[in-house]
Amino acid sequence: MKNAVNWFEIYTSDFKRAKKFYTDVFKCTLTDLPVSNDRHSQMEYAVFAGDEQAPNARGALVKLDVAPPGIGGTLIYFDTADIEHTLSRVESAGGKVIRPKQDIGEYGFIALIEDSEGNMIGLRSME
Fold this sequence. Notes:
Layout: E1 7-11, H1 15-26, E2 30-33, E3 43-48, E4 58-64, E5 77-79, H2 83-90, E6 96-103, E7 109-114, E8 120-125
Parallel strand pairs: 1-4, 5-8
Antiparallel strand pairs: 2-3, 3-4, 6-7, 7-8
């Protein structure tokens, strides 16, 4: 059975700043994809590294005129081995800790942060 979620997009207002935030906090690679822009909408797109055949969701950072960032949209959780270690990099990367590490029983631990664009995202780990 495939995961119910197989793609996500995180909207940005400052594309370069958002790319720096995600690479600094999660120590991941983002690859710019060329997109065709028309007179109606300008878009920038960078995909998070991953294996297309793996069972996990893949996704991208997106700058799109018609989709502004912000809290209240879709909430996604990034997997992390150590939430406290990841949280320690958030503020220096331009983000904010919204809710510190919280125990959710047999499902592990979660935390909420605000990225450099004002999006709320989650962190989740088993330890």
